[in-house]
Amino acid sequence: MHWDGSVWISASLPGFEPHSIWGASRDNVWAAGNGLFHWNGSAWSNLQNIPTARVVWGSAPTDVWEIGGNVEHWDGMAWSPASFPVSGGTIALVGFSSDDFWAAGEGLTSGFVDHWEGTTWRPSFTGMSSLIFYSLWGTGSRDIWAVGICSRGTGCAYHWDGLMWTEYLLDGTAALQGVWGAVQ
Length: 184
Known about the structure:
globular; Lipocalin; Thrombin, subunit H
């Protein structure tokens, strides 16, 4: 769906199931799910060469990342392969600048959160087995929330304060699929 300022307009993409959307402007929007699509202001185009895109995030029109089966970086002209330290499924991205963004998901043995510092990925959190992170949100690199499902099968939330992760157990809840907040 697209909000034109007064009404919602359907922007249907047959067969496409978006999981993540990021836009630099009203005519430069990226959508990832079971592929990668780009909106140029009038039409969606399917980037057939990136069929496994799962999540997308950028800091500028010339700094966009997609993670799925592979990790790719858009420099404004072309997509190129990039490195990523974790094998498994990256499900969420959140960022604040080209040298400060975070990725989370399910590694081969546990949930993880990694931090991109401009030239390298650094592990920030490696959890217990069966932990999966589905969503990230934050106000900056000293205020990150990661939510998902804990090894007990209940929802859980973790908060990064810039020094350490704190676990918040949410007994009686199902897996948390998303997190969002407001800056006070």
